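FAQ
Q: What does a multi-component entry look like?
A: The components come first, one per line:
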Amino acid sequence: MNTPPSADEASEPIVYVVDDDRSVGASLEDLLASVSLRTRLFGSVQDFLSFELPAAPSCLVLDVRMPGQSGMDFLGHMSELGLHLPTVVITGHGDIAMGVKAMKVGAIEFLTKPFRDQDLLDAVYHGIEIDRARRAREATDAELHQRWASLSPGEQDVARLVVDGLLNKQIAADLDVSEITVKVRRASAMRKLGARTLAELIRQIDRMSSA
Amino acid sequence: MKLGQKLLQFRRSQAFVLALLAGTMAVIFVAIGVTTYLSLKLVAAEAAAHESREHLLRMARVTSLGELTASIAHEVNQPLAAVVTSAGACRRWLAHDPPSVENAQRAADRVVEQANRASAVIARVRGFASGKPPQKTVFDFNDLVHEIVTLARGQIDDDDIALRLYLRDGLPMVEADRVQIGQVLGNLLLNAMEAIGTSAEPAREVEITSEMHGPGRIRFSVADSGVGFRPGEVEHLFDAFWTTKKDGIGLGLTISRSIIEANGGHIWAEANESGGAVFLFSLPVEARTSA
Ligand SMILES: Nc1ncnc2c1ncn2[C@@H]1O[C@H](COP(=O)(O)OP(=O)(O)O)[C@@H](O)[C@H]1O
Ligand SMILES: [Mg+2]
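Then the predicted structure of the entire assembly, as tokens:
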């Protein structure tokens, strides 16, 4: 194969397929490979759970009827397990009720076998994009928290009051320090948080408290 | 070319099932030179053709026809999904620049293989829905065991399996459909050999026993040192289309049970104390001797 060596193996999307029917699994792996998506196959929910998931944008393709835990049951418990994978549910004998149930427990798509290859690919691409966006969001949040933690308690106090809309003079009185000290801490807090303007500072702190 | 051979073999065995249903068994026997294993498979497949409508109705009562249809739909949709997906993959490999012919070829092979799998399911189901009722005769069960064992001998030896027979002397005659009971035995033996084939245990043993089981009944058992049952598996063994095998169909035991019950007997499974599985069935003895 002539895929160029990837700059970042970890950021390359990966699709997990959990289906006890090996032929279905293998054909899905082949289809995904033909559009340059890498796949990991699992024969049961249990096998999947014992696998250490890499930090790559991913999507899960999950069969409903399997020996052991059913895909539907697993899907219902995924968030409890701290798993946030966008999931495409596939089934050999689906009806509307089952489809409704799948969407209720969080599937992004419900496809009955035999499904159109393009429908499956569309759903998988969509899932990967959802996951990529979530990971990007989480990475920014984590960085923001890290930056916030690097502020001294005094700097954090000043930053909070700035965001509350107080003037330097009011902050100084509030914290019982000199106005110079407030200016120094304010400048330092802005620098550490990577905020160039007051508006940016407000946006970042807002976002952090909502995360 | 191991894969190619496997595919070929697979297609051949599917061809067998279909040919059998078309009633051209004798020709095929000569044409391809059937191995014992395949002939056992044939015995198992033939059982499908002997299934009675009556049983289907009875089954409809226990499971509901809806459930049965759902099962069949599921079993057919599974290979169909693989067919459609592989065909899609094949097209996409060909659309590469330059076309990835080797990958496309492999995808096309899978299309053929899975289409055959779907047709095998249909063939079994058709056999299942249109059979004859049992033709009861009076016969010696132990003789039948020897016959089936002779048929399987080559495969048993090839697989390096030690077969032990504990057949009680002087048992009364059994009254049942001899061909059908032979099919059940063949089925159980085939499953036992497959269970041993997938087990890592050093012991490779099959034990067949026959003995009295209360007045008027004889009990038979086929015990093996194979993989045995996983927790919760025993309840499903006889379910239609329930299988844990890659190329399994999951009708062997379903059909075996319906045969045994149509012949007035019972069939059940237990875990083998020494690991592995035991399948047991009972049959009524000849009416004249049982009173
Ligand atoms: N001797 C055995 N040991 C362990 N498991 C068995 C044995 N016989 C049958 N089974 C289980 O029961 C399932 C159903 O068997 P069967 O109805 O014959 O269908 P198939 O052989 O096509 O799978 C098998 O897939 C297997 O899991
Ligand atoms: Mg079987």
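Q: Is there any commentary attached?
A: Sometimes. For this entry: Residues B 191-192, 195, 224, 226-229, 237, 242-245, 248-254, 277 surround adenosine-5'-diphosphate (ligand 1) (CB under 6 Å).
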